[in-house]
Write a structure and sequence with these properties.
This protein is of the alpha/beta class. The protein has three domains: 106 residues, Flavodoxin domain (Rossmann fold); 226 residues, pyruvate-formate lyase- activating enzyme (Alpha-Beta Horseshoe); 53 residues, OB fold (Dihydrolipoamide Acetyltransferase, E2P), CATH 2.40.50. Helix content is 34%, strand content 23%. It has 13 helices and 17 strands. The strands form four sheets. A five-stranded parallel beta sheet has the order 2-1-3-4-5, with helices on both faces. The radius of gyration is 22 Å and the shape is globular.
Length: 410
């Protein structure tokens, strides 16, 4: 039997799809591309923006055209079941609470899930799902429910399996990663999880996905100094305007955000600090946008993920007044894209006198190898016979657009 798994959206979706793929493969299922006439096609959708909804529908229709039995899951399928049902060719809809049941649906029997085989060189391991926050623009709590953590012993077992399979880096992911453990009987925490992984495994690199600024304290900053923690942290700001932050229902102040950024930068040498910014939120006038721009310019972020505001039905922001025109949003996007390009270039140029630890991810025409450094930089190197997923050390030579070209140190 041949199966294709198509995935949109966040690292949590990517992690879940990897588990589905691995669990199917060890049960004799042949994973193929969409043009290889699959018997089943699993579409793991996203609904974070209106564009994500559109892309999800397009991907479902592409899958249906192959003649495969189409199983649709993910946040768009969870929130818009009635809409998905009307798309010709959809065989079954599986909501987020039953996503791993897809393995049983396809194989016809109950199977143990597999967490130690991944198509990626840097596996994403979901340790938490759901969110208890209610940011005014976000549908994730509706699609994923309240925060729910994977028990610690299960995570340790999965990490050890990933390590035994030969991987050198694991990315800990969650919808709200920083809330890990708060729902468990022993009231654990992300910091306790990290310490437990460091103690119970020898995996060389642990990377954290996105965290909220309020979850970063002195103890976590100290942990980030550990040689096995990737020198990379992603802290969504969303807006540099006090007024807009309140409208977004974000639970931090600008002063607390920036003071914690300063503390991290002072404690962890050469750490990459990234952030998310939403442009054109209702009520963001010229003054509020200028405030955001000024703050962003002053902070040495390594990169920014910049998104236009997208109206999501059933959210508070959907009903807000003071909507911003699409032309204004586009202009502001371009301003921040230029700023991001400048910040990224400066951070990359600051690496030219350093040595970078790089996980090999792919090869390009048998001429170059490409990988990701501990501080989240794509590095292009002369091709070597290094195993995919292995760690090499590279000396940067020059900056090429958004990557660094370097030589592997023998």
């Amino acid at each position: 039997m041949k199966v294709t798994v198509l995935t949109l959206g966040c690292r949590v979706n990517q992690s879940e799809s990897s588990v589905i793929e691995a669990s199917l493969e060890v049960n004799g299922i042949n994973l193929v591309e969409l043009n290889d006439k699959p018997d089943y096609c699993v579409v793991n959708t996203c609904s974070v923006t209106a564009k994500s909804d559109y892309t999800s529908r397009q991907l479902i229709r592409r899958a249906a055209k192959t003649g495969a039995r189409v199983i649709v899951t993910g946040c768009y399928a969870h929130l818009k079941q009635d809409t998905v049902k009307k798309i010709a060719g959809v065989t079954e809809i599986v909501d987020n609470t039953r996503k791993y049941d897809i393995v049983k649906i396809i194989t016809g029997r109950k199977n143990d899930l597999v967490f130690s085989h991944h198509s990626r060189s840097r596996p994403h391991l979901k340790v938490q799902d759901g969110c208890n926050f209610k940011c005014s623009y976000c549908t994730v709590p509706m699609a994923r429910g309240r925060s729910k953590s994977v028990p610690l012993h299960e995570i340790i077992e999965r990490i050890q399996s990933i390590e035994s399979a030969g991987y050198n880096e694991v990315v800990l992911t969650g919808v709200h990663l920083g809330s890990y453990g708060l729902d468990l009987p022993d009231k654990s925490s992300l910091k306790h999880l990290i310490k437990s992984i460091l103690k119970a495994s020898g995996i060389k690199r642990i990377r954290l996905s996105s965290l909220e600024i309020n979850e970063v304290d002195d103890e976590l900053a100290e942990l980030l100094q550990d040689i096995r923690l990737c020198r990379h942290i992603h802290l969504p700001l969303q807006s540099g305007s006090t007024k807009v932050l309140k409208l977004m229902k974000r639970n931090y102040t600008l002063s607390s955000f920036f003071s914690k950024i300063d503390k991290i930068l002072s404690k962890v040498d050469n750490i990459a600090v990234g952030s998310d910014i939403i442009v054109g939120f209702p009520g963001e006038g010229d003054a509020e946008f200028q405030e955001t721009y000024t703050h962003l310019k002053s902070i040495p972020f390594s990169y920014l993920h910049i998104f236009p505001f997208s109206e999501r039905p059933n959210t508070d922001a959907y009903r807000m007044k003071g909507k911003i025109s699409s032309s204004t949003i586009k202009k502001r996007l371009n301003v921040l894209i230029d700023l991001n390009r400048e910040k990224r270039r400066l951070y990359l140029e600051n690496q030219l006198d350093r040595v970078l630890d790089v996980v090999v991810e792919d090869k390009v025409k048998n001429v170059h190898a490409v990988g990701t450094s501990g501080n989240y930089i794509k590095v292009l190197m002369p091709f070597v016979n290094a195993r995919k997923g292995s760690i090499v050390f590279a000396r940067p030579l020059r900056v090429l657009d958004n990557v660094i070209e370097g030589n592997i140190i023998p």
